[in-house]
Design brief:
Helix content is 42%, strand content 25%. The chain has a three-stranded antiparallel β-sheet with strand order 1-2-3, covered by helices on one side. α1 packs parallel to α2.
Length: 67
């Protein structure tokens, strides 16, 4: 992601963390890569993917909350 895309993703993560605090949405660092973890389970790797793809994966991981 570009630095601008990273800021947008970070803002979205902050929003979802505040909206769904019981889901334990956070970053994990594994093998030098930044991963998204939800409920203690690694969901996806952020490195090497664009903003739209990462936002899609974040929403897919939280789709049960978004119904």
């Amino acid at each position: 992601m570009t630095p601008e895309e990273a800021l947008i993703f970070e803002s979205t993560m902050d929003y979802f963390k505040a909206k769904y605090p019981d889901r334990r949405i956070q970053y994990e660092f594994m093998y030098g890569d930044k991963m998204v973890s939800i409920d203690g389970e690694i969901q996806f790797n952020l490195e090497g993917y664009n903003l739209l793809y990462n936002l899609t994966r974040l929403c897919d991981a939280l789709k049960d909350e978004l119904l």
